[in-house]
Amino acid sequence: MKHPNLTAYDGVEELSSFNESAFEEYCTCKLRECDKQVDFIRRIIDKKNYTGKVIEIGSGNGKLLYALEKNGLLDDGLGYELSSSRVNFAIKFSESMGSTRVQNICGDYLELDKSKENIDLIIGVDIVLQLIAPVSESSEKLLLDKVFSALKHGGNLIMELMDFTNIINMKAMVENDLMLWKEFDEHDPWHYGLDKFSINGDDVVWDKRFINRDRNIGDSTFTNVLRHYTFDIIKQKLIQTGFDEQKIHCFTCWKSEGDIPKDEFIVTAEK
Ligand SMILES: C[S@@+](CC[C@H](N)C(=O)[O-])C[C@H]1O[C@@H](n2cnc3c(N)ncnc32)[C@H](O)[C@@H]1O
Q1: Are 83 and 209 in a shared domain?
Q2: Is the Cβ atom of 155 under 6 angstroms away from ligand 1?
Q3: Same structural domain for residues 76 and 132?
Q4: Of 7, 22, 89, 181, which has the maximum CB count within 10 A?
Q5: 121 in the same domain as 183
Q6: Pocket of ligand 1 contains residue 227 by CB under 6 Å
Q7: Cα(142)–Cα(138) distance, rounded to whole angstroms?
Q8: Domain range spanning residue 209?
Q9: Residue 213's pLDDT is what?
């Protein structure tokens, strides 16, 4: 049986659930969400040596790569994404943007990326490293080694990670699985979310159940197994991979405090 992280996003952003105007509106909104990341990337790259070769691992609908292209920060972009529905969405998104510099590749980054090198920027935002690491014993090391060898000297890895320390501490207070309810913003199609957490070695098993606002369609659920990293843990792994300790940095926001959830952090590592 496939690891749940390899299929968790199947069916996400299925094109058949968008009419033309909903598609346009969604894309505009997703692009706008990337402003803070584009701003961050503009600040951290070394403009003198930057040639715009970018890889995104787990690129989803491609929004960040298109936003970088639109802002003149991407010359040659590769997005790797497991979910075919998201890749189909990304291809239509590309056409609507008139993108010419981004290639969307459907499949597992660990299996597909054989020989890329001289990359300026490798991006793994929104917990993607944490999704890849638990898939097999070798996945974490394989991913970090691949990233390191693909980067050029002076190139940057950017990751956005979630620190599960609070969840792990809360889980320790209960005998069974930890269950947390949340209520979504009134504009969200989902009304409530029920998150169930259990711990498996270094990983947190996070089962998400969504409850629809109008209750017309069935509830949806999916499970992610996520590797727990604090900044110190990931820093040690990056040093073991070959990154220089002095060139590994932690940030608490992209642009202004509060633009990522409280338990998340951003790590940059320059080769
Ligand atoms: C949390 S989502 C983030 C998507 C996107 N980066 C964003 O910010 O909206 C993580 C994505 O990584 C993809 N993914 C997970 N493991 C992957 C792998 N080994 N290779 C390529 N994509 C992967 C998932 O299918 C999912 O779409």
Answers
A1: no
A2: no
A3: yes
A4: 89
A5: no
A6: no
A7: 6
A8: 166-222
A9: 82
